[in-house]
Amino acid sequence: MSGNAGSNRRRRERRRVADAAEDQPADLIVISPLSDFTCVGCGDEPGGGLVMEAAGPLCLGCTDLDHLTYLLAGDAALTRRARKASGLSAVVVRFSRSRKRYERQGVLVEEEALAQAEQHCLADEEVRARRRERDRLRRAEQDVEFQAQLAAAVVRLFPGCPPSRAEAIARHTGARGSGRVGRSAAGRSLDDAAVTRAVVASVRHQETGYDRLLMSGIGRSEAREQVRDEIERTLDRWRR
Ligand SMILES: [Zn+2]
Question: Are 118 and 25 in the same domain?
């Protein structure tokens, strides 16, 4: 495909995506693609969702959304509560070839926000059953030994990092098949740079106003720039 046709296609795609999000223009939109894509940020084909930008598709890792949990549409109350409790959330859409438009599939929310929302919905037995299923899948995904090593590496590099935070960083980073830094070849060998990248990614979401900036509609690079010093301060504190 020529570059021109590609850029026209991308423009059409963005317009369709914007249409799908029309009722809530501030939503971050993640596309569940119909086929494999190459991320224009990292050059990988990581699978999962993508964010369509002017330059082309970006993976969830490159858009700082890869720590979020997918909640399939179907339970309106649970979805509403989870999004409300989640500092950062995105709407997942998928193109319907038959209807020629993007349709909502679900949302990406913080794991803790989902757990909190589920607490509110506990009266519903079906929700409990789904929770059990998700817990089972998550346990199956997690490589417990790798996570323990990663948590230890975080504490070794950042002695001031609270142990519970080190464990949370290792848990998020270590989920199998997620494409997060910790699962990359460098992350597996617990290379210092990869461990630091995992810590930075987590600090950006947890210890800074980054998610709030994104949700307010500020672009990712500007938001990253705004929280850069704050991240450095936290890392300095944790190095001691
Ligand atoms: Zn990428």
Answer: yes
Whole-angstrom distance, CA of residue 171 vs CA of residue 204: 16
- 159 and 204 share one domain: yes
**What CA–CA distance (Å, rounded) separates 65 from 204?**
11
Distance 139 CA to ligand 1 centre (A): 26
CA 76 to centroid of ligand 1, rounded, Å: 31
Q: pLDDT of 114-146, one tens digit each?
A: 999 988 887 666 777 777 888 777 766 667 778
161 lies in the same domain as 94? no
What range does the domain containing 38 cover? 3-140
Identify residues whose C-beta is under 5 A from ligand 1, the ion.
39, 41-42, 59, 62
- This prediction has a pTM of 0.66
Between the CA of 43 and the centroid of ligand 1 the distance, in Å, is: 6
In this structure, the chain runs to a length of: 240
Amino acid at 110: E
- Taking only the tens place, the pLDDT of each residue in 150-173 is 899 999 999 999 999 999 888 877
Rg (CA), the chain: 19
